[in-house]
Amino acid sequence: MTKVSAFFDKVIAATAPSKPPINLDPENEDANNTATATSNGYPQWANKIGLFIYMLWDKCLWSPFSRTWALLNRWTNLTFWIFASIPIGVLVGYYQPEFATEIQPLGTAFIRMIKICVVPLIFSTLVVGIAGHGDDISKIGKLAIKTIIYFEIVTTLALALGLIMANLIKPGQGVELPPESDNGDANDLAKKSGDISWDGEMFLIIPENFFAAAVEDQMLGIVFCAAMFACAAIKADAKSREVMMTVCESLSQVTFKMVALIMNYAPIGIGASLASTVGANGIGVLANLGKLIGGVYAALVIFFLAVFIPILLIFRIPLGGFLRAMGQPWLIAFSTSSSESALPKAMERMREFGCPNAIVSFVIPTGYSFNLDGGTIYMSLGAIFCAQAGGMSLPIATQLSIMGTLMLTSKGIAAVPRGSMIIMAGTISQYNLPMAALTMLMGVDAILDMGRTSINVMGNCLACCVMSRIEGTFRGPVWREEEIERRRRAALDDNEKSAAAAAAIGSILPSTTQDLHHQHNEKEINEDKIDVIMHETISPASSIKNNQEDHKAP
């Protein structure tokens, strides 16, 4: 026991801070035992073992881990981890398909958590944005008309590109169709397409009640209810309007904080979603429909280069800044195949990029029903694929007729589950195209959905920037005031977190409380000082400088 105790003494002496020695009486063993016992009542040898274990944990395990974690936090961010989760998810799905399908609930959980925030986020931000226009409701109508015209122009270009690509690469030639007996799901979708009509879409816009629209994820219904509520708030008395604006503003702030918490789980959810997609479909599906999949993704890339880039240049939207702002929303949309999952982050990034709250809260949710660029490319190319797979050669007039049908029926499909497939099924049935080809499309829909969803989200964010530029509010005075308030709240929030951390640590380690409190007081930011800093950093001159920097390559 003496040798063990001596060993612990040497280790502790080398790692622990030195303490004054205890004077022992060599003739009184009982006094020695009392002197060597510490204030917690344990003998000295037990405390030596405990201190040795603590030193082993602190020096060999916790300290290296904490330093490594701090280094990763310094040089990485959420986007890095999302990027890292994508190849990991693909590899897991390819090499362990059974395990990949079992972890699908992890990805589903992420999508569901994001969907929890969608309804309160859209409603609160839209009410604040519209009511923030003041008493001039005509501004809302003018913005809506301009937005719808822009949506129609861009989606028409998307449909035309899909038709051109289908005629160039001919993805349906040489494809073997399954027997007609396997077309049960496709026939069911074709029957559902009969329920989609002008009056049906109108009832999607005007729901029976707000809660029904919220439960059924009817984006148009939520936007309509929020717009009506905001217009009523504008007409109400000043006191009632101020109360509702305060409530909605607080709701939006809390919802954004909730989204920030959920986004910490994004790499796990995204990796699980990709793994389950690859594990369920496999790589073999690329053999039979490789030309179709490659054609769809090539059309999406061409659409980005030939349509999005010129729009950015025409409206003088910083290309580099836009691509950086779209990083996380695009990754989330691509990896989860869910536009709703990317909605909160897309709205947040567009606010930070330079679009005022009124434009963001109206254009992006509306675009989820009227501006599905990736979906329209897929539907036009898929319809021609079905004809080619059945050995049919459609004349140009028929193809233009299909294009017009898709243009009219594709509005509002975001409110319908599997809306793109339902619209395609109805179009195929109307023009007597082989339904068996749609069955093949359904087999690769998950892979194609990733690409078209990401382009949908990017197109809506671009529309938000374009409308801001047309309205003359892109990085203008209104946006600067909103950005000042946002940064002021962020600075105060960080300040409060530092104070709470200092108090928590001080309660555990009283000896360091005064030092931490002193450090916190040195870093404490006065609210008036924050306002001065924000106004200096977000001045018109700094906005011009940021525009020049954003125009550089990302």
UniProtKB/TrEMBL annotation:
GO cellular component, one term: plasma membrane
Extent of the signal sequence: none
GO molecular function: symporter activity
Tagged with keyword Mitochondrion: no
Membrane-spanning parts: 78-97, 109-131, 143-169, 219-238, 259-280, 292-315, 377-397
UniProt xrefs under Pfam families: SDF (PF00375)
Membrane disposition: Multi-pass membrane protein
Protein localization: Cell membrane; Membrane
A GO biological-process term: dicarboxylic acid transport
Chief localization: membrane
Keyword Cell cycle: no
InterPro entries reported for this sequence: Na-dicarboxylate_symporter, Na:dicarbo_symporter_sf
Alphabetized UniProt keyword annotations: Cell membrane, Membrane, Symport, Transmembrane, Transmembrane helix, Transport
PANTHER family registered for this protein in UniProt: PROTON/GLUTAMATE-ASPARTATE SYMPORTER (PTHR42865), PROTON_GLUTAMATE-ASPARTATE SYMPORTER (PTHR42865:SF7)
Recorded family membership: Belongs to the dicarboxylate/amino acid:cation symporter (DAACS) (TC 2.A.23) family.
Full protein name: Amino acid transporter
